Amino acid sequence: YDLAAFNIEQYCQLMLKYKLLIKTGTYPRTHSVIRLLRELSKIAEELKELLSSREAMIYLTKIEDTYIGARYLPRRYEKVEVEEMLRFTREVFKPAIDKI
């Protein structure tokens, strides 16, 4: 499940970078999903709602941590963790980003 968790993070990160590139012509050199989302929220006010949601921030932090874990820390993910990250990505993150 480690690779699945990492792929979810990569999907989120690259979606945000793509949207920033299309909308602004550039994106910050970072792997932080939360920082990228904050940058995109500067031009898409509706994303501020996602950033202010406690539940969303917990999932976004967990997703962001998969990048760090894959690169620097030995971390094993359980099936239920990855299923919840995937559910959040499909049901909350993707629809919010697709609107932009």
UniProtKB/TrEMBL annotation:
Keywords for the protein's UniProt record, in alphabetical order: DNA-binding
Entry's Gene Ontology molecular function annotations: DNA binding
Domain of life: Archaea
Record-annotated HEPN domain positions: 1-92
InterPro entries: HEPN_dom (IPR007842)
PROSITE patterns in alphabetical order: HEPN
Secreted is among the record's keywords: no
Protein name: DNA-binding protein
Taxonomic lineage from the root: Archaea, Thermoproteota
